[in-house]
Amino acid sequence: MAAAESEERALLAQRLRAAVHYAVCGLCQEVAEDKAVQFSKQSLAAIAELTFRQCETFARDLEMFARHAKRSTITTEDVKLLARRSNSLLKYITQKSEELASSNMEQKEKKKKSSASKGGRMHREEEAAVTESEDSNMA
Amino acid sequence: ERRSGSLQHKSALFASVTGQKQTHCREYWFLSPEEFETWDQLYRIKESDGIQQPTLPPVQFETLENLEEISKPKEEATYELSFSEWRLWQNRPFPTYMVDHSDRCYHFISVMEMIERMRHEQGDCSYEREIRPHLRMEDVHVRRDKRHLSTTSST
Q: Closest partner residue to B68 among A19, A87, A139, by Cβ?
């Protein structure tokens, strides 16, 4: 049973690797166009694997940061701590986090108003809009 | 010569930190006259040494506005320590003394090892071949954008 479990974990890891690789290829494509260079497939693979492994470091740190603040839920404050060593990075992440927070607030306000007037159907669409804008922030 | 007495001096320096005789010096953050003398004689890099001041490379973000670079004019020649000059040595763990390698360090070693394996590949990529069958489109953000996956041919 343990063997089956670890097999499943390995498959999940490969699935996640494949997704990260796909995303890395997309981002690198943008950089390649921007800088008028080409990435070899091997360099894309190396960046993908680095990203995949960096996520493990991030996950462990985030968990510890949250625990350090006696929380079990990871928040944006923990994410900011990941960027603490570089002023540029910290400023960038802090800005993004503020943008997200204010747009979330707006959405909540709208939701309150609309749920007061209209039915529940409206919610779904607005939630979709929020995730959409989060996605574009991440990109 | 200047450096020949270094062992003796080192132990003298050590004694001044741990020994009782000079403990009064430790009230201060800065070096005592004796310590300064030792530092000046043995460790301080001077022009006559014919070596350059070692510096660490500055942090730079290619894709962000850089805040850290208050690029001070170099008044002297410096030697920037390199993290990549000996990359061919970095696909194996180096010896440790008191501090073990971290997970992050092992990740680095693994990726250097992976790069080493792919170094001589032409065109088709073994990593891609291995993981591509595991890709599920519902996991990824599909861009309406073009040739995305046919990205490149390695040259």
A: A87
